[in-house]
Amino acid sequence: MVGHESVDPKPQEKSAATRMTETVMNKDMLTKLTPEYIVPLVAYLGHDSCNETGGLFELGGGYYSKLRYQRSTGVTFDKIPTPEQIRNNFEQITDFNGECDYPSANMDMMPKFLDDSIKSKLKPNKLSATALKTDKIFNLMAQFIDAGEGKSIVDKLQSTYTIEIIPQKGAPVARSWILDLKTGNGKVSQGKAQTDATFTFTDDDFEAVCLGKLNPQQAFMTGKMKIKGNMKKATAFTPDLFPAPTPENIAKYQAKAGGASSTPAPSTSAPKSSAGSGPTLKTDAVFQRIGAFLDLGLGKEIVGKLQAVYLWEILPEKGKPAAKKWVIDLKNGQGSCKQGEISNADATFTMTDADFFDVTEGKLNPQQAFMTGKMKIKGNMKKATAFTPDLFPAPTPENLAKLNKPKL
């Protein structure tokens, strides 16, 4: 990172004003890369009031920022894989085009191999070694043909084609697609057969041709498209005979094929909760109960013991943004629990509505929730571990009646 420093949280020098760099950097750059710019951040990170730990920072010349790691969707094997299986699935392992996340602790990885519901979504691609960009294009072609909309193409071409897709130049064929534009309404399928013409492309190049980013004639002239067989029939085939692989067309033909559309349905307004703004969640009652308990002055002992402020972020479901945030102040006065945000909470918990509700009902162990990634924690871990929902009354009918009062 030229012209920057990194703090992890100890500073790691990447480029600075030294006798070596003064021969390659101009004076203005050198005056901005002095240790004086590093010291303030290092001093704060080392202070008792700073809860930051394990962070990676980039700074230089008065600019300060925090970096974060990004994790690819990844692959989970049921058994110890062979090096060949790693090789065959390496593109899938390193693919950042899927549902990526941003790990903040080592424990974040554990659900990937401990939680069966997550593991089932991370299987190696069953069709071949890796998922390819062009899969969706051929699926669109197949759905178009199956919908009976390719009859005019069949009548015009009266030919069969093989399209071989390689993941990258020089690699073996990863997919072989057969386009039968000769029989009946036509058919698109994976396989091998004797056809009138065979095309060979890399995955990227065929996608570029279909998206109109690469001219087919130019692709042929530059060796990006190779053709074998009947050249007359080959030149009659062009990807623009089929619908362009736009999100709209993909959704349209998925729907015709009976599959789920990739276009999300229009959202409707969720019912508003009486517990402040946002949709109604199961945990609303939990936080109302905590608030009522504290408002009655019954939590003074907890406040005296914990002396901490907590922020709870409640997600409607995994992967969604927080629907509600609750501040539980167990530091000031007799304590309070209110919906809202705070920037200087001692610890922040993030859970889905269902998971936090299960914790409060005793159906999910908090430690297990943390180990499997169902509970994420940021901030002062000592203060975080001191907080448990069983500090407050259990949701029995007797306690609910005792704490019954107007909602927050």
Chain-wise SSE layout:
Blueprint: E1 5-7, E2 11-13, H1 27-32, H2 39-45, E3 56-60, E4 63-67, H3 83-88, H4 90-93, H5 111-114, H6 116-119, H7 135-146, H8 151-157, E5 159-166, E6 175-181, E7 187-190, E8 197-202, H9 203-210, H10 216-221, E9 226-229, H11 231-236, H12 247-256, H13 284-295, H14 300-306, E10 308-315, E11 324-330, E12 336-339, E13 347-352, H15 353-360, H16 366-371, E14 376-379, H17 381-386, H18 397-402
Parallel strand pairs: 5-8, 10-13
Antiparallel strand pairs: 1-2, 1-3, 3-4, 5-6, 6-7, 8-9, 10-11, 11-12, 13-14
Which stretches are low in confidence, meaning pLDDT under 50 for 5 or more residues running? Answer: 1-13, 260-275
CATH superfamily heading of the largest domain? SCP2 sterol-binding domain
Mean pLDDT: 81
What is the CATH class designation of the largest domain? Alpha Beta
Helix content: 25-40%
* Structural class computed from helices and strand pairing: alpha+beta
Oligomer state of the chains in this structure = single chain
Proportion of residues in β-strands:
15-25%
Cross-sheet strand order for the largest sheet: 7-6-5-8-9
CATH architecture descriptor text of the largest domain? 2-Layer Sandwich
Q: Fill in the CATH topology of the largest domain.
A: Nonspecific Lipid-transfer Protein, Chain A
Strands, count: 14
Radius of gyration (Å): 29 Å
- The tally of domains stands at 4
Distance between the termini: 50 Å
